[in-house]
Amino acid sequence: MMFKIASSPHNHSQKKTSAIMRTVIFACIPGALAQFYFFGAGNLIHIAMACAVALFCEAFILSLRDKPVRKHLLDYSALLTAVLLGLSLPPLAPWWITVIGTAFAITVVKQLYGGLGSNPFNPAMAGYVLLLVSFPLQMTMWLPPESIQHIDLTFFDSLSVIFTGFTTEGYSVNQLRMNIDGITMATPLDTLKTDLTLGLTTAESMTKSVFGAYGGLGWEYINLGFLLGGLYMLKTGVIKWQIPVAVLGSMAFIAIGGSIIDADQAAPPMLHLFSGATMMAAFFIATDPVSASTTDKGRLIYGCLIGLLTYIIRTWGGYPDAFAFAVLLANMCVPLIDQLTQPKVYGHPARGTKQ
Questions:
Q1: 148 has pLDDT over 70
Q2: Both 170 and 271 in a single domain?
Q3: C-alpha closest to that of 223 among 107, 87, 111, 74
Q4: Over residues 25-35, mean pLDDT
Q5: In 65-147, which ranges are continuous DSSP H helix?
Q6: Does residue 120 belong to any structural domain of this protein?
Q7: Domains of the chain: total
Q8: Contact 144, 185 (CB under 8 A)
């Protein structure tokens, strides 16, 4: 028998990398469909563009590095990065946002570090943060759910806005962001953060139309879709339970504490869990086998760190949703976390015992 030595990511499910990546992409479908239902076809268009750019950049850099292009393209890792980035972008962000973010994620964050298995940061989140910091106006143009939009948006309208800035009937993005009352809408987390600074209580803010029964209107079902996909990945053994449980558990624990201390100024736990990118980040982004911790204890610490950082930035930071920043900051801590949580070498005596 031959003993093969391979670089990370190491996965003990005995599945090929391509099969794992395909499973993760398929698991995104429920959340992507929910996003399509509530916000239109914009994200599907961005996903398609991101996939094309990702494959081109991956092939170009691989050819420069004299690596087998077809073999690496068929591991589907570039496509997964493109799908996750496309799902994270505002539906009507201009086309060049997708091109810049995807090219940076694949070319700089992934390939310049050595390709799959060598990148210290999550490529999709690194590309997202680059866009958010560089183009904050375009990256915050989220639409209200279609149920409270005053203009019906077709597939061709979405396509036209992405490439020209206007619908086929001449409406701009700012006009589309207004609800039926003519008020420009923000995301639920951003609405709550702004209202608290204006002196409103959490209960008063959550009476607005952007909030649903227990989370952001539409976002609660999008998060349920990603939760369903995440549970499927857990069942198939593609990911382990420690990271998503630690992310969601730590966030819920801190949010409960905040609500107990000051319910008028703290977002309730369910709003944290079912708004923004919570479920997608917990199951699809934080669990990246390359940039996440590799030990069982380390995964718990890593997940708790992401949950804590997300809550801190959401509550006191300058961004309403903070998972991308939290994941990248936690990626920086992974080498230390893994070093401190390495299991004891087989046969090594316990501490304090004489040899």
A1: yes
A2: no
A3: 87
A4: 96
A5: 69-73, 77-88, 95-103, 123-134, 136-139
A6: yes
A7: 2
A8: yes
